[in-house]
Amino acid sequence: MFDTMVMTKIVAGLCATLLFFLVGKWAADAIYLPGHDAAHAVYPLPVEEGHATEAAAPAEAVDVMALYAEADATAGEGLWRNCRACHKIDGTNGTGPHLDGVFGRAIDAVDGFNYSGALLALGDTWNVETLNTFLENPRGAAPGTRMSFRGFSNVQDRVNMIAYLETLSQ
Question: Distance between CA 61 and CA 47 in Å, rounded?
Fold first, then answer.
């Protein structure tokens, strides 16, 4: 079927390919990994004593209830644009459950909406604490939730949104 010349060319091609990759790996190691210890570092960075412990210090606790007492529901209404793609405030469900009456409501209480079940770990009812935790990072607070919103990183935005949601619950 194959003569010896064709077989020799195939084996030579495979060996040349292998040799090409071995030389490439050797060259990449020589270029990108010149030394593995600090003595061979191109530009060693000095590390200040105590600097690493400052970065590991926990974030300062924020009194959410004190901020909530001074929250601006009008500013929260402006933030509603982040929510209205999935939630409605007219009593009907969208991609997410309707949010009118959410403040003080049981977490999984909207009839006709299929909850993911991940929200039950937050608590029983939506209040300032549970809403603040959830709105900061929905997927972090309730792993497995289907809510794709990344959350409000600013605590003032969160309490303003909570104040607006409370006005919808009255």
Answer: 28
